[in-house]
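$ ./design --mode recover --in tokens.txt
reading tokens...
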């Protein structure tokens, strides 16, 4: 599977409504009001402002009061549209956002080359992950696009729905939870309450990482030498694909440190980079490219 990783570094959602521990039954009031006041930008799918997505370039989209909206069949929605520059399937799409704010939980519509709907995917659950060396506490939503449904897929559209904003988003604890203090456990219990609303507004980043290793691994026939070869190919591909901006922010140094297992050294480069978010992204992609 291809993973579309979103916000591996710390993410601050812009303009989100705050989490309400009382379980406001009106849902996301800010999101609903914004949708009511927004003007639909397009008359059809082929008029969407599609942003290219390739295997190495990350894209950032801000969903705020000025974001484009469209009258989907499920209700008027804010949306972000992407053109897939590669179409290897199945896809595993991961959407990540900060735990401190309300959560932008998009639905996914897959479009064909003629902009027709191929499939609509609805988020089954969102999981709260504990803080680690590479990311803060965060919400993670994973959606799988089946190859049988999307063999002609060319575009993906992330969007909210009016119904989803009016109701609530279920949240589940992850299987492995890091040690927490009494206060963080109390906060987690509050955040995971099923009565807490989610937001239609937020910031998302998407990038496509990996293809060969994840597809072959599904067959469960690789020996360690095969895995090492694939990982080496992935890490080398990441090195050669760095942009000048990434190189200026210690991209090569971060990748070399990760290859040597010197994660503290890699994080030192991240913290000293001029663009720490970009450096953090390089660090995370390097970690994912390793065995």
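writing sequence...
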């Amino acid at each position: 599977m291809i993973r579309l990783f979103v916000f591996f570094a710390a993410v601050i959602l812009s303009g989100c409504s705050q989490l309400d521990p009382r379980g406001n039954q009106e849902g996301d009031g800010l999101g609903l009001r914004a949708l009511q006041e927004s003007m639909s930008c397009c008359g059809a799918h082929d008029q969407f402002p599609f942003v290219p997505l390739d295997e190495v370039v990350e894209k950032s989209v801000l969903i705020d009061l000025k974001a484009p909206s469209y009258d989907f069949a499920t209700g008027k929605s804010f949306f972000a549209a992407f053109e897939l520059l590669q179409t290897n399937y199945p896809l595993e799409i991961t959407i990540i956002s900060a735990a401190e704010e309300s959560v932008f939980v998009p639905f996914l519509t897959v479009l064909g080359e003629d902009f027709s709907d191929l499939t609509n995917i609805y988020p089954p659950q969102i999981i709260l992950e504990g803080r680690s060396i590479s990311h803060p506490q965060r919400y993670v939503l994973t959606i799988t696009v089946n190859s049988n449904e999307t063999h002609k897929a060319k575009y993906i559209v992330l969007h909210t729905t009016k119904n989803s904003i009016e109701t609530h988003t279920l949240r589940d604890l992850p299987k492995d939870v890091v040690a927490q203090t009494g206060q963080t456990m109390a906060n987690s219990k509050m955040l995971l309450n099923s009565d807490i609303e989610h937001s239609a507004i937020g910031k998302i980043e998407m990038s496509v990482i990996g293809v060969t290793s994840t597809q072959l691994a599904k067959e469960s026939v690789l020996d360690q030498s095969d895995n090492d070869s694939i990982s080496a190919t992935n890490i080398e591909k990441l090195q050669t694909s760095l942009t000048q901006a990434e190189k200026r922010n210690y991209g090569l140094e971060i990748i070399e440190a990760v290859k040597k297992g010197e994660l503290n050294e890699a994080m030192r480069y991240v913290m000293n980079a001029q663009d720490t978010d970009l450096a953090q992204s390089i660090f995370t992609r390097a970690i994912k490219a390793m065995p």
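exit 0
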